[in-house]
Amino acid sequence: MNSCQQDLALELAAIRESGLYRQLRRLDSPSGTVVELEIRRLLNFSANDYLGLANDPITVGAALKALERYGVGAGASRLICGSLAPHHELETALAEFKRTEAALTFSSGYAAAIGTLGALLRSSDVVIIDRLVHACLVDAARLSGAKLRIFAHNDLEDLEQKLRWASQRRSVAGAGAKPRVLVVTESVFSMDGDQAPLREIVELKDRYDAWLMVDEAHATGIYGPRRAGLAEACGVGDRIEVQMGTLSKAIGSSGGFICGSNELIDLLVNRARSFIFSTAPTPASAAAATAAIRWIQSESGDARCRRLWQNVNCVRSGISERRSELVKRRSDGDCLTNAGAIVPLIVGDEQAALEAASQLRKAGIFIPAIRYPTVARGEARLRLTVSASHTEEQIAQLLAVLSSLNLRFEI
Ligand SMILES: *Cc1c(COP(=O)(O)O)cnc(C)c1O
Fold first, then answer.
1. Residues 6+ apart with CB under 8 A from 273
2. Closest C-alpha to ligand 1, atom 15
3. 227 Rama class: left (phi>0) / alpha (psi -120 to 50) / beta
4. What would the pLDDT profile of 355-367 be if each residue is shown by its tens digit?
5. How confident is the model at residue 323 (pLDDT cuts 50, 70, 90)?
6. Is-contact 145 122, C-beta < 8 A?
């Protein structure tokens, strides 16, 4: 081993020792409700494909048509010659879906976050984020160079305190552009499945003359009367300056997006570096996403979504019934009251979470352990997710395995 390899091997050994070592698992099947993993067939309760659209004739058909017409690669970045019709159709569909003036797509949600915060914030500005926002928003906030403040998770009082500090700071700022204050949160949190108090946050940011960016990665497509997201469900879509989301979860494709005013989108086209300096997403993934967004708003989309919530209720009530055997209630809340498709089964210790995931795998269920740095240290968990594609039998099997194994969860 040369010194580079030795150095890296030491670091890897330390990661292993702390129970935080991660490994890729090769699937030889689509990432559906049943997956082929290491020659075994396992029931999958870990995907974000809430509506089963990642492998559905609706999306696959649209992608195939686009493949035939436009080929595999976009050939260049959007601002050179890669801005193909499927990208524009997708952005029109997104703006209609979210009822905003305009939309812009990125190659991933991660790229959307990095590009957008970088474009909107300068070093004299302030960005205030919820403690539990996704890593891409944390990285984006840090990279932006703006003053970063973190408010306690979903804590309106703490948010108000940070907003008050920012507005005082603004009032003493010298001549020049007025410093911007941007609040960033998620609508449905990715690792806990709970919801931000969006109405109250909108009131607060308006009162303090701040802007709001909401990441709807886990809500787009499954919440609200038209399934546009939690902002739609709360009736505050038109009061959020920056609506972010991803096409890779309920939409079933890949890519990230921002919806908002014409000015916002125009500025991002001009300033978002992850948009400007990156090859346009494949036209097939854009076409698949457009088909998914249209279909989600149709009657059969509505039926699929209702199916998802039936499945969610089934899993949650099944776990509730068995909770005396397998769950120890957390003192600070009860995830079963947050009726989302993400059910975190909190184990706590990292090694114990790995052990629980391994027991489940042996029993035919795939739910990997989620550990630091995805969640805080000592909050390792099995992040169980439910899809509309799970059958009653599959859910019954999950519940049977959960109660047969002697696992301890906090919930
Ligand atoms: C998955 C996720 C992202 C990143 O989206 P990708 O398209 O996978 O890059 C951003 N925010 C949240 C909350 C997410 O869960």
1. 114, 115, 118, 119
2. 190
3. left
4. 999 999 999 999 9
5. low
6. yes
CA distance 381 to 375: 8
The reported pLDDT for the residue numbered 250 is 98
3-state helix, strand, coil in the chain (%, to 5): 45, 15, 35
Contact 345, 384 (CB under 8 A): yes
Catalytic residue among 98, 162, 249, 390: 249
* CA 167 to ligand 1 center in whole angstroms: 30
Mean pLDDT, the chain, as a whole number?
Answer: 93
Cα 340 to Cα 385: distance, rounded to the nearest angstrom: 9
Q: What is the pLDDT of residue 177?
A: 79
Task: Pick the residue whose CA is nearest to atom 3 on ligand 1.
Answer: 109
Pick the catalytic residue from 98, 134, 205, 218.
218
Ligand 1 atom closest to the CA of 246, numbered from 1: 7
Q: Are 334 and 320 in contact (CB under 8 A)?
A: no
Q: Is 218 one of the catalytic residues?
A: yes
Contacts of 261 (CB under 8 A, 6+ apart): 100, 101, 102, 241
What distance in Å separates the CA atoms of residue 406 and residue 360, rounded to the nearest whole number? 11
> Which residues approach ligand 1 with their CB closer than 6 A?
108-110, 134, 136, 186, 190, 215, 217-218, 246, 248, 256
Q: How confident is the model at residue 203 (pLDDT cuts 50, 70, 90)?
A: very high
Q: Which of 216, 281, 286 is nearest to 59 (CA)?
A: 286
Q: Report which of 195, 308, 307, 298 is spatially closest to residue 249, judged by C-alpha positions.
A: 308
Q: For residue 245, report the distance from its CA to the centre of ligand 1, in Å.
A: 7
| 205 vs 410 pLDDT, higher one | 205
β partners of residue 235: none
Ligand 1 atom at minimum distance from 248 CA: 7
- pLDDT surpassing 90 at residue 330: no
Q: Which of 94, 190, 223 to mutate to test the pocket of ligand 1 (most atoms within 8 A of CB)?
A: 190
Note the pLDDT tens digit of each residue in 112-121: 999 999 999 9
Spatial CA neighbour of 86 closest among 53, 305, 75: 75
Q: Choose among 112, 119, 195: nearest CA to 153.
A: 195
3 state DSSP class of 370: strand
Give burial (CB, 10 Å; 0-12/13-18/19+) of 65. middle
State the pTM of this model. 0.93
